[in-house]
Amino acid sequence: MSSGDNPGPPQTPEAAPKAPPQTLEEVLKEKAPDVLKDIPVSKRGVLAQVKIERHEISLRAGPLPDPSELAAYNQVIESGADRILKMAEAQSAHRIRIEACVVQSQQRQAFIGQLSGLVIGISGLSLATYAAVNGQPWFGAAIGGATLGSLVKAFLATRETQKRELSEKKQQIEQVQRQQNSSKKNKDR
Questions:
Q1: Which of 30, 42, 110, 111 makes the best surface tag, with the fewest CB within 10 Å?
Q2: How far is CA 186 from CA 18, 63, 67, 143, in A?
């Protein structure tokens, strides 16, 4: 069977040609011959047993393969690269719609929470005022204090949650930026 009969799966780009393993003695001869002179000949046999190999790994993040991989898909599947790009665009649009729904839902929940807090606050303070006016000042003060205290506590808890979430998002963004900078530095090498 010839190689043209069955193209097989798309070929990924080959990694840089792997250099054959070198012994420590060979590396020292090449890079630091002065160091090798200081090692007795009887001990150099140990250096010949130590092998040095170099492995390179390439990582990337994102929905799209490398351009060379896209070209390989085009060779195997008609308009393969175009199909992959359309799939990535559709996934991105879907994610944007989902995020918009989540934001809208959170805004609605926040509004309902504020409205509920207003109703509870007005009701509690109204009851406290009614009790104080009708001869129960201690009861009115307790109801009013509890109402205001619970509203303040709820407000502060919400603020603390928002600060924590913002801090977590900031850390995630910084981590992604560090990873991108690291991958750029590795590419430049």
A1: 42
A2: 18, 20, 18, 64
Distances in whole angstroms, Cα of residue 129 to Cα of each of 121, 135, 136, 148, 149: 12, 10, 9, 13, 16
Compute the half-sphere exposure of residue 163: CA atoms within 13 Å on the CB side of its CA. 6
Residue 121, token pair as written in the block: 């606050």
Mapping DSSP onto H, E and C, the string for 22-45 reads EEHHHHHHHHCHHHHHCCCHHHHH
Query: Residue 143 burial by CB count (10 A; 0-12/13-18/19+): exposed, middle or buried?
Result: buried
Question: What are the Cα distances from residue 96, in Å, to 61, 65, 176?
Answer: 19, 21, 19
111 against 9, higher pLDDT = 111
Q: How would DSSP label each residue in 102-145?
A: HHHHHHHHHHHHHHHHHHHHHHHHHHHHHHHHTT-HHHHHHHHH
Structure confidence by residue, pLDDT tens digits, 113-136: 889 988 999 999 999 999 999 999
How does DSSP assign 61-114, residue by residue? -SSS--HHHHHHHHHHSTTHHHHHHHHHHHHHHHHHHHHHHHHHHHHHHHHHHH
The Cα 8–Cα 14 span in angstroms is 16
Scan for tokens 């690291």, then name that residue.
182
